[in-house]
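Lab notebook, bench 4. Continuing the backlog of folding jobs that were queued last week. Each job is logged with the same field layout so the records can be merged later without manual cleanup. Today's entry covers ribose-5-phosphate isomerase, a 146-residue chain. Filled in by technician R.K.

JOB TYPE: sequence-to-structure
TARGET: ribose-5-phosphate isomerase
LENGTH: 146
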Amino acid sequence: MVLGLGTSSTAAHALDRIGELLHCGILRDVVSILTSEWAVGRAAAAVGIPLADLNTHPVVNLSNDNTDEVDPALNLVKGQGGSVLCEKVVEGANRRFVVIVDKSKFVSRLGASDLGSPWRPSPSAGSSLSAASEASSMACRALISS
Ligand SMILES: O=C(CO)[C@H](O)[C@H](O)COP(=O)(O)O
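JOB STATUS: finished
OUTPUT FIELD FOLLOWS
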């Protein structure tokens, strides 16, 4: 199975479980396609999920991801995590897309949380965020160049 891994702290919980199932042999022959090296790549490597890319695996059987808001009609807004372009590239190769949501993302209407507010990183977050953004762009270029 080719698994697309969205960039999300919530979907990262699924990674831990996938890692456990691989280790005890319940899951086999799984490779993953990353949507960010800097976040999900490290987490996937840490739990032993083999990594691949769209060059060798152009069809993704299943991707998991999260969202920033979900309304009562299940419309979603994504992208606050900073990897939405890579996620769209991987999701474009998808057969199935599963969104893992906890209740903190439920809103009465899209835009009801502070998503629309101007986002200002704290000064201390600046350097790590720009490094993360750069790494994400590199991973994305690698995906798109395939
Ligand atoms: O859209 C995303 C990344 O582009 C994320 O899925 C979204 O920001 C939610 O992330 P988290 O699970 O960490 O709250």
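OBSERVATION: Residues 11 and 78 are 13 Å apart (CA to CA).
SIGNED: R.K.
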